[in-house]
């Protein structure tokens, strides 16, 4: 029987063609300490080197049997390229994700370049580009390559103080809307750039916009129009990911023009499937931290099976994998996707 | 208008001003509390803090979201800035007060939840030593020793910075086992292992804020005893 490569499986999945089994992949960072240790490096070193970035992503995929890899891992590359800096915590013990140390304090301080494409030459943006090239060149490009960019609102929250942004949604609506519009253009430029470099799918992570933070009404008027603009500017496959509370906005998420929605463990996928119907592609929705670092490996299969039984088309973690996973939990996760993912899902058939 | 009637009216204005984010209304009512020589602590707890408690309820009912909480907090601060200098020590009596060291742990730059918890402590008459955000772990220990604070409040929006909190707890408990440690709103005084088994950390900004607001309710209950 002819076998398909992991990359072909992921590409067929997004085209909704019948596939042999559910692909096991993610749209968020999926790097593990096991891979990093094997390379003899530390997590803090990974973010600044194309070889380490691509190498650790590939090593994780190959070690555990993922169908794809995702780069980069941190959410500071674009803010850093816009001059906001990045704290990499090279001296800290253990694992800390990079953060943005100097956000613009107010909307008045925002200083965006006229031509946003200048960001591609700044900070670690060239490192990410090179990492993409390395992954694509690896062993005849057998692995699928996912790219991601923060959504306009979440990107805004990485560039200006979050409380200024959140209060501004009500107190300073016009200027915040204008800022979000600029963010939309920025997100489109970066996502198109990664698509031009050849990523196989593009995940837009509007993770700061769940209804833990803002109302569904605000989501409809301030988040949705910008996401619609982003998705209309991008090639397929493209995914709309939001973590946190999404039950109240899942239908609007699905109407933004993406090929799939991705949600985390807070979403009630059974209900979402009922609301969206079987044509919608839903990705999700296990808690990566709890499932892969906290519980016993024997319990992992049940978590994964529940995602599939609830109605996802592919099991995606709700967020980045926390790198310090238990190896046996990772193995149980991938094994469970393979085992329970053999039959058709609502939106994707099987050969 | 009698004194009690006036008191009730002004408390209502403070309460409503916080709930409706009417900073001018809060400012005016707070000034009138001072002008009329009414009990300032009563105005803070039963006007401003009571308003914030209702804001918390509205958040639970999904009528309010984080932008509304932040605007209500701004209105509360307008009142607190006016009233706080006039709170008399005897008003606090033997009710909980003291010093607290607060901050978000290294690796976490989200401080909305922390700022609301900080506000709650200030409302209750605590002296707050705010270390800010993205705070190196050792700094919590140093500041606790420097100030001899009874409470260290650690905030983290992200699950992933929780490991840092565990280290801080260990470091502080080694130096001073009697320090109470709060994580995102859950007060802990005994076994740190229990702490990590419990829901003592916030999984999202929303949760951190929600927990912080709930603490206001708990504190008001304590004050009423």
Can you characterise this structure?
The complex is a heterodimer of chains A (351) and B (225). Chain A has one domain (23-340): TIM Barrel, CATH 3.20.20. The relative contact order of chain A is 0.14. Chain A has 351 residues and is α/β, with parallel strands linked by helices. A seven-stranded parallel sheet of chain A has the order 1-2-3-4-5-6-7. Chain A is built from 15 helices and seven strands. In chain A, helix 12 (269-276) links the parallel strand 5 and strand 6 (282-286). Chain A is 46% helix and 9% strand. Chain B is globular, with a radius of gyration of 18 Å. Chain B is built from ten helices and five strands; from the N terminus they run αααααβαβαβαββαα. Chain B is an alpha/beta fold. Chain B is 60% helix and 10% strand. In chain B, helix 1 (3-19) packs antiparallel against helix 4 (66-83). Chain B folds into two domains: 3-92, Methyltransferase, Methionine Synthase (B12-binding Domains), Chain A, domain 1 (Orthogonal Bundle); 99-224, 3-Layer(aba) Sandwich (Rossmann fold), CATH 3.40.50.280. A five-stranded mixed sheet of chain B has the order 2-1-3-4-5, with helices on both faces.
Short description:
The complex is a heterodimer of chains A (351) and B (225). Chain A has 351 residues and is α/β, with parallel strands linked by helices.
Write the layout of secondary structure elements.
The complex is a heterodimer of chains A (351) and B (225).
Chain A: H1 6-14, H2 33-38, H3 43-46, H4 50-64, E1 68-70, H5 77-81, H6 125-137, E2 144-150, H7 152-159, H8 162-171, H9 173-196, E3 201-205, H10 216-233, E4 238-242, H11 250-254, E5 260-263, H12 269-276, E6 282-286, H13 288-294, H14 297-310, E7 314-317, H15 327-340
Helix pairs in contact in A: 4-6, 7-9, 8-9, 9-10, 14-15
Chain B: H1 3-19, H2 23-35, H3 40-60, H4 66-83, H5 89-92, E1 99-104, H6 112-123, E2 127-130, H7 137-147, E3 151-155, H8 162-175, E4 180-183, E5 186-188, H9 192-197, H10 205-224
Helix pairs in contact in B: 1-2, 1-3, 1-4, 2-4, 3-4, 3-10, 4-6, 6-10, 7-8
